[in-house]
Write a structure and sequence with these properties.
The complex is a heterodimer of chains A (500) and B (317).
Chain A (H helix, E strand, L loop, with lengths): L1 H23 L6 E6 L18 H7 L4 E3 L5 E3 L2 E6 L5 E6 L13 H12 L8 H4 L2 E8 L2 E6 L6 H5 L25 E5 L5 E6 L12 E6 L3 H9 L5 E5 L4 H4 L5 E16 L9 H9 L3 H9 L4 E3 L21 H10 L6 E7 L6 H12 L4 E7 L5 H4 L6 E6 L4 H9 L13 H11 L4 H18 L2 E14 L2 E2 L15 E2 L2
Parallel strand pairs in A: 1-10, 14-15
Antiparallel strand pairs in A: 2-3, 4-5, 5-7, 6-7, 8-9, 9-10, 11-17, 12-16, 12-17, 13-17, 18-19
Helix pairs in contact in A: 8-10, 9-11, 14-15
Chain B lengths: L1 H26 L4 H6 L5 H10 L6 H13 L13 H36 L4 H15 L2 H15 L15 H35 L2 H8 L4 H30 L2 H6 L5 H11 L2 H29 L1 H10 L1
Helix pairs in contact in B: 1-13, 5-6, 5-8, 5-10, 5-13, 6-8, 7-8, 8-10, 9-10, 10-13, 12-13
The chains are: A alpha+beta (500), B mainly alpha (317).
GO biological process, one term (chain B): transmembrane transport
Pfam families (chain B): BPD_transp_1, BPD_transp_1_N
Subcellular location (chain B): Cell membrane
Chain lengths: 500, 317
């Protein structure tokens, strides 16, 4: 009875709202209202290379040379084709002819050189420099041809250029991002109001054709509960991600549609391989095989909240995904511990923090499971403030959280000796050599074989327990059409529409 | 004399708040640079950021510089938002004032009327209904009240927007539709407190000898209430109202966050989250000044309307 009343009220409200829409804008198109979480506290800027980039608008306004396909391949965007020298250190990219910026000027190689220059400028400190810093120089060969010289062979440069931050901006535009940013994307900025509502208009000259929507509004709502309220109250149409715990609020509502999007985001328990007792590979392995990954995933993320993995930072959607199998082996773990000199089990301290979602839950779930193998875990929750500064990569055993990256990037950033963001302090020359050979192999099939071998080797030696990759939940009004269940930076915004 | 004394003690309290706030923020682990640059910050980047924002200077030096500016009305420059603290706080203070005044405008007449009614009909069915409703309203946490209001009026009925989507510096008129629910949520809690205070005060005054004397002199019931009971019962209520208003100004964090209202409360949350020291200090000082200022005002008003108090203090000296 109560439900019927609620539904009746809701449909009345919706009927009123859609009538209003019909009266307001008769022609097709319409406005899509999405939210952003004000995560940079109002310091958001439309400069794609700035650490405080205004992320939900980025792929609406700007394009990349290369886009990631949902399968993890590099597909043409502003570049139509590319080729490399045999040592994969020199790359030539052909640009798409006829592309214009939103102010009408043509997109050329000079803009690429300028953009890459800013991304890799050591004085500018852009986060994307960690990915594209291997580009020593970008040269314009002719208006539609660019050549990149790399400091090291990288067969997957196109994948690195598909990074969500490697967006192309106009030559000389450094000072323009505050007031009138210009990109080649499907929507142009009409009004920037980071703490209110930012308005974007369709760019009719978009190279893929005029977008279906007329407008996109980006509404700032910092609180996650308030965002759900806004969706339920029909004040916004799309929440790109919601907390899985909020799923029951929207799941059985006929006015709301949800999408599950598999990602390469992960949490992990990181053991430093240069600290006792984790300097012994047997201890590390025992710590890892004591876990029932499927059960742990459900426990921490909820049903359908994640995909179990075998300590593999490369996610299942990547074209180099290894997809190894790893069951729980409590007896095996006990035996490994006994061999390593801990016949009566082992005591460890695990540092965590609620600096990000799930980080405390995963520590507690691990504590409960590991106990069966005689691993006694003391969970210590540190202040979220300063966690990345004082605990992360500094303590012997801590909880970590990473976002999705292509195989070459995550393996080189996280597991190569001496990399600045190497959470387990892994330093294994044989592993590095395998990684170099994989990265420098021009032939795709052979390269894939090598990357699989790299991941298999990693499973043997790693100090990183990575039990799952996350699946994010997206919620939207059932009026939103044409939005595929893909990551934000793969969304084809020009194809999204609102039905009446 | 007494006014000057109260003024001085208010200023001393403000100074104390500044020192305590600065010390507390200083004692937190990490700083604005580590929180701003986040997980992937290199040591050099953090060091560069600290130098850039003067965080490598000793704490007392930074406090001294800040306090010196504050005395001239300059609260410094926010670290994360590239703007002066005063210009960030300005429009948000305005919005919070609008919200507080709207809540007060709904709740004070309501609370006065109901409080007097309940007090005069003490223990009768009217009093019972009013008092128990007030008790329930007082015990409901503000976020529950906010959620319930949104559910009914925004999600089910679709009458009023559930959240505000206006930027902090938007025109006041554009705030109005979104103002209704947060003001109602605040008024609900506020009314209950004031109502109970008025009721108690009315009961006390009604039982006092001079009201009894007036009644014996043959003063009619209306005149008795308007001329004898109300003025005397209102004196303590004024103080309570001023203090609730102060509490309202400073306690709007939950409500503002829940309704996405662009005021000081939401700013406080964000500033603390960003570890933006000058901004947190600035907001705290403004809120403390309002709180203490309204307390001072309440005292002065009480003093002005209650001659007994004045003479009692006068004699004491």
């Amino acid at each position: 009875m109560k439900k019927t009343v609620a539904r009746l009220c809701l449909s009345l409200a919706l009927a009123g709202a859609s009538w209003g829409l019909l009266a307001g804008a008769a022609e097709a198109g319409g406005t899509l209202r999405l939210t952003h979480d004000l995560g940079m506290g109002g310091a958001e800027t439309l400069d794609p290379y700035d650490p405080n980039r205004f992320w939900p608008t980025m792929n609406l306004v700007f394009d990349r040379l290369v886009a990631p396909s949902p399968k993890g391949e590099a597909v043409p965007e502003l570049a139509v084709s590319w080729s490399a020298s045999s040592d994969v250190k020199t790359w030539t990219f052909k640009l798409r002819p006829g592309v214009t910026f939103q102010d009408g000027t043509p997109f050329t190689s000079a803009d690429v050189v300028y953009s890459i220059g800013r991304m890799t400028d050591p004085t500018f400190n852009s986060p994307v420099r960690s990915v594209l810093g291997i580009i020593k120089q970008a040269k314009a060969i002719d208006p539609l041809t660019v050549e990149f010289d790399l400091s090291t062979g990288e067969a997957d440069l196109p994948l690195l250029l598909a990074d969500y931050r490697a967006l192309m901006t106009k030559k000389g535009s450094a000072g323009s991002f505050k007031d009138h940013p210009v990109g080649t994307g499907p929507f142009k900025v009409e009004k920037i109001s980071v703490e209110g509502t930012t308005v974007l208009d369709a760019y009719p000259g978009y190279w893929r054709g005029k977008p279906h929507l007329d407008k996109v509004e980006v509404v700032a709502i910092a609180d996650s509960a308030a965002r759900i309220q806004a969706l339920l109250g029909n004040q916004v149409d799309l929440l790109l991600t919601i907390d899985p715990k909020q799923a029951p609020l929207v799941e059985h509502n006929p006015a709301i549609a949800t999408q599950h999007v598999a990602t390469g985001d992960w949490n992990g328990l990181m053991m430093r391989v240069d600290e006792k007792p984790f300097d012994d590979p047997r201890v590390r392995k025992a710590m890892r095989i004591a876990v029932d990954r499927a059960a742990l995933t459900t426990l921490v993320l909820g049903k359908d909240g994640g995909v179990p993995t075998c300590d593999d930072p490369v996610w299942q959607g990547d074209q180099y995904s290894w997809q190894g199998k790893c069951g729980r082996d409590v007896e095996g773990a006990k035996k490994l511990l006994a061999d390593a000199g801990y016949p009566n089990g082992i005591d460890v301290e695990l540092m965590t923090s609620d600096v990000e979602e799930n980080m405390v839950a995963i520590a507690e779930a691990y504590q409960a499971q590991a106990k069966d193998a005689g691993i006694r875990v003391k969970v210590t929750t540190a202040a979220s403030d300063g966690y990345w500064d004082k605990v992360w990569m500094k303590m012997p055993f801590f909880v970590d959280s990473w976002g999705q990256r292509p195989a070459t990037q995550v393996l080189n950033e996280g597991w190569r000796s001496g990399s600045p963001w190497n959470p387990t302090h892994q330093a294994d020359p044989a592993f590095d050599k395998m990684l170099d050979e994989a990265r420098g192999e021009p032939d795709f099939a052979k390269r894939r074989e090598r990357y699989l071998a790299v991941q298999e080797k990693l499973y043997e030696i790693t100090g990183g327990l990575i039990p799952y990759h996350k699946v994010i939940l997206r919620a939207m009004s059932s009026h939103v059409k044409g939005l595929d269940p893909v990551l934000v930076d793969c969304i084809r915004w020009d194809l999204v529409s609102m039905d009446e | 004399m007494i006014v000057l004394e109260r003024l001085l003690s208010t200023l001393a309290s403000l100074a104390l708040v500044a020192v305590l706030m600065f010390g507390a923020l200083e004692a937190l682990p990490g700083d604005m640079c580590t929180s701003y640059l986040g997980k992937l910050a290199t040591a050099e980047a953090v060091a560069q950021c600290r130098t850039e924002h003067g965080l490598d200077r000793p704490a007392w030096e930074r406090f001294g510089r800040w306090a010196g500016g504050a005395l001239t009305g300059d609260l410094g420059h926010a670290l994360k938002r590239d703007e002066s603290v005063v210009s960030i706080i300005g429009p948000r203070l305005r919005n919070t004032l609008v919200l507080a005044l709207a809540a007060a405008a709904i709740s004070f007449p309501l609370a006065l009327g109901l409080g007097v009614a309940a007090g005069l009909k003490r223990d009768g069915p009217i009093d019972l209904a009013i008092s128990s409703t007030a008790l329930v309203a007082m015990t409901i946490p503000d976020f529950v009240a906010a959620t319930a209001l949104v559910l009914v009026f925004s999600v089910w009925l679709g009458w009023i927007p559930g959240i505000v989507t206006v930027p902090p510096d938007g025109p006041i008129l554009s705030l109005l539709p979104g103002l209704v629910l947060p003001a109602a949520a605040l008024a609900l809690i506020l009314s209950a407190h004031v109502l109970r205070m008025v009721r108690a005060s009315v009961i006390e005054v009604a039982a006092s000898p001079y009201v009894e004397a007036a009644r014996l002199r043959g003063v009619g019931p209306t005149a008795l209430v308007l001329r004898h009971i109300l003025p005397n019962a209102l004196i303590p209520a004024i103080a309570v109202m001023a203090l609730t208003l102060a509490g309202l100004m400073t306690g709007v964090v939950v409500i503002e966050v829940a309704f996405n209202y662009p005021g000081l409360g939401r700013l406080t949350m964000n500033a603390v989250y960003d570890r933006d020291l000058p901004l947190v200090l600035g907001v705290s000082m403004v809120l403390a000044a309002i709180y203490l200022g309204l307390g001072l005002l309440a005292d002065l008003v009480t003093l002005a309307v209650d001659p007994r108090l004045r003479s009692a203090l006068g004699r004491g000296r």
